[in-house]
Amino acid sequence: MTVIDDRLNAIRGAAPRKPHNARTLAALAANPGCRRRTLMDAAGVNKALIADRLGYGMTVGQMSSIALARGKSFEAQVKAEGGNDLLRLLRLHLDLPTAQAHYHDLNPADDDDRISARLRRSQRALEEAARASDPVGTMFDHPILQLTMNGVRVHIEPDLIAFKFGDRFHIVEIKSFPIVDGVADSGKVAAAAQQAAVYVLAMREMLQTAGLSPELVSHEVILVCPRDFSNQPVAELVDVRKPLASLRRHLTRMESIDTLLPILPPSLTFDLVLDATGQPTRSPDDLAASVAQVSARYSPDCLQSCELAGVCRAEANGTVPVLGRVVREELGGIDSIAEAIALATGGRVPDDSQREAARLLRTAYQMRQQALEAMR
Ligand code: SF4
Question: Which top-rank group of organisms is this from (predicted)?
Answer without folding.
Answer: Bacteria
